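Holo prediction — adenosine-5'-diphosphate.
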Amino acid sequence: MGSFCMLTRTRCVLRQVLLGPYTAMERTYSLDVSARLLRTEGFVDGRWISAASTFPVSDPATGEELAKVADCGPTEAKLAVDAAYKAFYIWKRYTAKERSALLRKWFDLMTLHKEDLAKLITFESGKPMRESLGEIGYSAAFVEWFSEEARRMYGDIVPSPAKDRKILLLKQPVGVASIITPWNFPSAMITRKVGAALAAGCTVVVKPAEDTPLSALALAELSAEAGIPAGVFNVVPCSREKTPSVGEVLCTDPLVQKVSFTGSTATGKILLKHAAGTVKRVSMELGGNAPFIVFDSADVDKAVAGAMNSKFRNSGQTCVCANRFLVQSGIYDRFTEKLGQAMDAELRLGHGSEPTTTQGPLINVNAAKKVMHQISDAVSQGAKVLRGGKRLEGSFMQPTLLADVTTDMLCTQEETFGPLVPVIRFNTEEEALAIANACHMGLAGYFFSQDISQIWRVAEALEVGMVGVNEGLLSTVESCFGGVKQSGLGSEGSKYGIKEYLDIKYMCFGGLTP
Ligand code: ADP
C-alpha cells in the first residue's frame, strides 16, 4: 500500500495567542495519506471515471492546492443515475442481513483508516484534527447504526374489518436517492444519509460539496473494498460552476425517487422546486439560527461550558451552532465575563493539523467577510466588543464576543456560520421565548436553567426540532436530527432516519375462507 505525500507550503498564521498580537510563521504542512484513499476521479458503477476538466481543491488554512479533481458534469451525473438505477434491482434483492453485513464491513474499514480519513477532513475543510477524528467516529457510527437498523425494518399485520381478508403493510426501498451534501461535515453528512439509504435497499448518487470532495471519494474507495456492489454508491464531484447543472440532473431525472439534501435554505428551495416536477420524496436539512438562552437560575459554569461547545465547534460552522445568545439580566455580567475568560483560556487558532489548534480557518475568505460584516453592523448600532472582532490572515477570524446586542442587528437575524457570540440581554421568560421564536428557522435551540417547571415550559415552547437542556452538544446517531419551519423536512439518524428511504405498500389478501 503506497503512501502519497502532498506538501503544501505556505506562510501561515499559526499558534498565535488568541487575542494578542500574532506572529506569522513559515511552515510546511503535508497531507500524507495512503494513495488509495486520495482519489481524484468520479466513482460511477464501481469504476473511477475522469471528466473533460478538473477543479482544484485547496487547504483553506493556507490557500494551497491539494488536488485537482474530476469536474463531473450532467453527462457523468446521468451515467451515475443510470448505474444506480440498474444496481437498485440487484441491491434491493439482497437480504437485510446481507446488506447489514456489508455496511458493517464498511464501518470496520472506516474505523481502521480513521487517521487518514480525518487528515483528509482537516486539509480540505480546515477542521482541527481532534474534531476531524471526532467526525470520523460520528460518521462511521451512522454506518454501524444503520447496519443494525437494516435488520429491523418490520412491516405490520393489521386486524382486518373483513373476515375474508388479511391486511399487510410492507416496507420497501423507494429506489435511487440523490444525496447532496455540504462541506462542514465532509464525511458524516454523507454517511448519515447513505447509511440509511443503503440499509433500506436504496442505491445512491452523492454530489459532495465542491470544497470537500476528497472525503467523499475516500468513502467510495472503502465502500468498494467492503464489497458493496458496483453502482450502489456513486460519487460525482464537481465545481461550483457545474453544480447547478449536475444538481438539476440529480433532482429531475425520473429514475431518481428521492432527494436528500443538507445545506443552505436558499439552495434547498431550488432543489425542492426541481424535485416537485417529478414528485420526488425529499429530505431537507437546512439552515438554523439557534437561540442559546441562559436564565438567572442557570449554573453559570455549565452555561459557559455549553456555550463554548455549542459555539466554537468547527469554528462556529455547523447548522446547530448557537447563534443568538439571550442572557437574563441577573446573570448577564457573570456569564459574559466567564465566557470571555474561557475563550482566552481554551481557544487557539492555527492549522488544523497542529495538535494545539482548536480553531481552524473558516471555509473561505467570503465566509470570514460575512462574519466581519455582521460585527461591523453590530458595532455601528452600539454593540460592545469584549473579545476579538477582527479578521486575520486569509479566512482566519478572531473568536469574537459582543455585548449589548439587540434584535435589530444582522448577527441575530442571520445565521453567522463563524466564531461570533452576540449576547442580548432580556428580563422575563416570555420575552426570551418571544425573541427565540421570532425566526423563520427552527433547527436547534439550547437553554440553561435549574428550575424544573421552567425547563418543561421552555423545552415545549421553543419552536425548534432539537433542544439542548443544560447541554450544548446534542447530535448522536441514536437520536433524530431535523428541523421545523424553514430549517427543513424530515429527520435523519435514529430509528426514524431509515423511514425517509422506505415506502409503505398496503397488501390486501382477499377471498380467504374464514
Ligand atoms: P454553502 O453556501 O454553505 O456552500 P450550499 O447550500 O450552497 O451551502 O451548498 C450545499 C451543497 O449544495 C453543496 O454540495 C453545493 O455544491 C450544493 N449546491 C449549491 N447550489 C446547488 C444547486 N443549484 N443545485 C444542486 N446543488 C447545489
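READOUT: The chain has 14 helices and 24 strands.
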